[in-house]
Amino acid sequence: MPETILITGGAGFIGSHLADELLARGHRVRALDNLTPQVHGDVARPDYLAEDVELHVGDVRDRDAVRRALDGVDAVVHLAARVGVGQSMYEIADYTSENSAGTGVLLEALVERTVRRLVVASSMSIYGEGAYTAIDGRPVEACERRRGQLERHQWEPRGPAGEELIPVPTPESKPLGLTSVYAVTKYDQERLCLVYGDAYDVPTTGLRFFNVYGTRQALSNPYTGVLAIFASRLLNDRAPIVYEDGRQRRDFVSVHDVARAIALTLGREEAKGHAINVGSGTSVSVLELGLHLAELLGKPVEPEQTGKYRVGDIRHCFADIGLARDVLGFEPQVALEDGMRELAAWLEGRTATDRVEAAARELAARGLTR
Predict the structure, then answer these.
(1) pLDDT of 249-276, one tens digit each?
(2) Considering all CA atoms of the chain, what is the largest pairwise distance in Å, rounded to the nearest integer?
(3) Which helix H or strand E contains 276, and what residues bound it?
(4) How confident is the model at residue 55 (pLDDT cuts 50, 70, 90)?
(5) Which of 78, 113, 116, 140 is the most buried (most CB within 10 A)?
């Protein structure tokens, strides 16, 4: 049955793709978005946002704006958040205000005007390091990489006895490691929503997104996803900047698959109370990714391996998506090769303001890269 669904952050990268998915399924879609200039530039409405989306320009911290946006809504998908690990480490008040306090404002409004369903975007960043085993297959919790180790370019984490580790898919049961301000605020969003849902008997699900990529990412935002950052550099004929040795492994999941996962969640009562990984279930190194994107764009520019590291970065993390399969019936449909080709085609003829070096200088000046 068609419903009216509110997407907070609905004019953004993931939100606009989700809007397309929900409209195709016959729902009415409303978006609440503050159109922050760092992401959107100076626009009144992004040109990629479907005409049928009812856009409310407002901030999730504005109680009146939130109440207006909730009027007549059946379900809420809460995507609104400041993104970026590096920037979160020095814009601490802004991140905690928009992500944590903003979620509190939304939930207080939902106490007054309940909905049938709530889905909140969480993040793989809350795991810190991903899951590992020893050479013999025993699960082992990786020790935090210390400054001295990183300065010696010993990038791989070790176990408590100094044993060599093998990265494996990260399940939802892994103990969390909140290594950045961004991770703390994303966990705040997840837990606040799940606590609200349990207290007020509103079926609520947290979706822990891994590295989402695709069209419509903000190319001029130096704190967005790594593929968009690489694209910004390559479009300006500059080398993508790679930290450590580039062999850190991540799970890159197409925004189309993420939109489908959210839509599936809205219809699955059995997802109530769960926090669920949404990824591709495969991994690739950051260096491989940069090389392949340069090849697809026809740019003979190899990534620049700085040998530096960023405070709060982790080495390997990729998703175990067994729970998403079991509870949501989710199966990734977009292979990385196909998704990157779509991204490369979208990038043709686009321009990007390359702010990556300025962002790197900002982090370095604050002692956040070494």
Answers:
(1) 999 999 999 999 999 999 999 999 999 9
(2) 59
(3) strand 275-278
(4) very high
(5) 78
